[in-house]
Amino acid sequence: MKSIGIITIHSDLNYGAALQAYALNQFLVSKGYNSEIINYIKIPNHPRQYPFPVNIAYWLMNRPRYNRYRKFLKSSVSTRTWHSIDELMQGFDEPYDVLISGSDQVWNPTCGGLIDKLNPCYYLAFADNKKYKKVAYASSLGSYRFNKEEIKSVGKWLGEYEHLSTREQEGKEHLESFLEHDVKVVLDPTLLLNNYEWQRVAAPVSKVKDEKFVLVYYIDEIAECVEYARKVADAHGWKVAMMTNTAKHFPGVDINIPFCGPAEFLWLFNKAQFVCTNSFHGTAFSVNFNKNFISVIKRNSPQRAQTLLKNVGLSERLLTDIGQIDSLSEQIDWITTNEKLLQLRTDSIEYLINAIEN
C-alpha cells in the first residue's frame, strides 16, 4: 500500500481543525494506507496576548485543553516535527508516495499563520512533484479570493497537483477561473467517518449528568448563538450548555463547560438534544449525528455551511433571524438527508481513492 503524508492545519487549538485532520488520516488508515499527518507546527493565526502575570495564568488554565488536543492526535502525526516554513521548505525528503493538502481553510491566507500572506507549505510547494504525487482533498479558501499577484504563485503551485478538490462550490468556481484544471467539490473529512466511528473516540464530560440540553458551539458571535439556544431550551424545558475556552460564566447559559478537547466535543454533540451553532464543523457534526439543529449564518464566511446544507437538503436550517425558529419543523427528515449524505460520502471516497491510485 502507498505511504501518504497529509499537510493540514492541525496544531491550532481548534475543534474543527483537529477533527478534520484526524478524520482524513483515520479514513486512509482504515483503507490500509500507511498514512500520517506531517507534523508542521504553524504560527497560531490570532495568538492571545496578555501581560505578565496574566499570560502565565492563561497558559496554566489552558494546559489541560492543550494536553487533550495533543493526546487526541498523538497517534496520527509524524514523529518528526517541523517548526517553521524554512525548515519544511529546505530539502524535504520523507518516504511518502503521495502528499495530500488536507481540508480546513489551508488555502485561506488569513488562516495560514502569516497574517494575510500565502503560506507555501499548504500548497505543497516544499515537495518535488517529480518525486511525490500531489493531491488536494477538500482544501478550502473559505470566502477568500486571490488577487492578481497571488494568482501567479497559487497557479504555479496548484499546477503541480494531479487532482484538485475543495469543500465549497464558490471556491471551485474561483479556482477554475484561473487554473487549467478541473476542481471537484467533496465532503469535509469529518463526514467521511460516520456517527458510530466518531463515538468510538468520544470521551464523557463529568460535568454533564443526565440533563437534557441544547448545546451551543460558537465561533466569535457568542450572544447571538446563546439567544437562539435559550429560545429553543425554554420552549422544551431543557438547559443550555456551552463549550468555552474560559471559566467565565456567560449570561443565559446553564452549564458552562470549559477547556474541552476534541474527544469531549464529540461526546457533547452525541448527547445533545439540540445544537445551536454558527460553526461549519458544528453544522457538519449536527448533520452527521442526526441532531435537530440551528445553523446561525456566519455572515463573513457562510459558504461552507451553505454548500453542505444545500447538498443534504437542509438549507432551511441556516438561519439569518431568530424569528425563523418558529417556522422550522420540529423533526428533520433524517431518512432523506442520510441518503443524500451517503451518496455524497460515496462520491467523495471514490474521488479520494482514485486520486491516490490513478
Treating each run of at least 4 consecutive H or I residues as one helix, how many helices? 11
Q: Please estimate the helix content.
A: 25-40%
Query: What do the pLDDT scores average to?
Result: 92
Give me the Rg, rounded: 20 Å
What is the N-to-C order of secondary-structure elements (H for helix, E for strand)? Answer: EHEHEHEEHEHEHEHEEHEHEHEH
Name some characteristics of this structure.
single chain; 358 residues; alpha/beta; five-stranded parallel β-sheet; 16% strand; globular
Give a structural overview.
This protein is of the alpha/beta class and 358 residues long. It is 37% helix and 16% strand. It is built from 11 helices and 13 strands. The protein has helices spanning 15-30, 54-73, 85-89, 148-158, 169-176, 195-199, 222-236, 262-271, 280-288, 303-311, 334-357; strands at residues 3-7, 34-40, 77-82, 98-101, 133-136, 165-166, 184-185, 213-217, 239-244, 255-258, 274-277, 292-296, 318-319. The strands form 3 sheets. Strands 10-9-8-11-12-13 form a 6-stranded parallel beta sheet, with helices on both faces. Helix 9 (280-288) runs parallel beside helix 10. The longest helix is centred in the C-terminal third of the chain and has 24 residues, at 334-357. The protein is globular. It starts with a strand and ends with a helix. The model has no long low-confidence stretch (mean pLDDT 92).
